[in-house]
Amino acid sequence: MRPRTVAAGLLAVAVATLVGVVASLPGGLGIATVLGVASLAGLLLAALVLIVRTEPVEAPAQLSSPERNPIAELRVARAMGVGVGFVLDDGSLSNPSPTLTAMAGPWNGPLDWWLAVLAQVRMPTPRDCAVCGEEERVGLLRLDMDTPRGVRRVYQLNLHGHAHEFNDLDGSLLLVRDMTVTSVSEENLRRLNEEMTVARDQALAASRAKSSFLANMSHELRTPLNAVIGYSEMMLEEIDDGAFDPGAARQDLHRVRSSGMHLLDLISDVLDLSKVEAGKLELKPEAFEVSELAREAMAIAKPMARANRNVVRLECAGDVGSMVADPIRVRQVLFNLLSNACKFTENGRVGLDVRRVMQGTEEWIAFEVSDTGIGMTETQQRRLYEPFYQADTSSTRVHGGSGLGLAISLLLIQEMGGRIALRSTIDEGSTFTIHLPAAPRRATSPLSA
Hints:
This protein is an alpha+beta fold.
């Protein structure tokens, strides 16, 4: 039985006895009674002392913060994939953790890895430690490096300064995290956003170019169409009125035919572009004399040259010979370049030089169309071959044409396995050089400039 229980029982007996004695007193207190009461009081006091001594009142326990456990913290860092080490005062690395050692595996160990790190980054300037007063390093560094085998790695180095809880280790605490996956994901996302921005800008630019093209083409189509309709109505009125003059009608019919041919050229440009882009343009290669085709193209361009008071020049090398290609498309390309040269040159010179050249073991035919016209800026040259883009949006209204000639020419040249190059200086003129294989080949040549 516990002492506190015994003491409580004695106290209860003593109290009951004391109450009974006092209640039985007849009227006065005798010596025996006084002694009995005193004995009972002593018994009561002893019981109280026993209760107090056997089970003292305990004071409430005071709260205290738990002590740091450096080893446990290292284990947590290792579980999180963080490498741990110490950077000594001389900049060397000591006590690398197993995680850091695994990270440095491609460098044959943490020491070689640390030398590679020091060769690329600059350690933070030391500062005085608030605890010991010695120099410590604190800072956050990002390192993008390649392993000896050329594999990219991105690390985050976090220097925390002295870790005095590690009593037997010196130096500034270094935490290393491999950020390669995160960095690559961020870069891919950033690159994707940039590509989407570029694609959006290109789509908007193409939309604006098409809108401008359609606005100019509406003018170009209406002009010859109005001429056809107007002259036809005039002739019908003369016939109805009985004033038909065959001589005047002949001139009107020439104007109708000229306007109709111009309208056909505009429509043909749009259809040709659609066919080439859809891959439905069929080439019909055959052997032909290059010099003869060059003279035909120049003869077509001469009226345009005379209209702007230009001097034309054709030079064909004696050994230019023949080639196998689609003569209609080659003539179309040459005419597009010559007509542009004549339109954008006034009181100047337009030339066509043709020669046979060797490139490796293959024979090529080089066509060079030059002029002394207005020339083009670098920005205009970069976008010159884009469909629906015009170097000067007003040029179609001033000089006529669909503005698709160069885009179509480029696509035709590539379909025939050739390439085109441009040299141009503003206000000095332009020179287009076309290289086409003398024999048919697949269309693999990219655009060069």
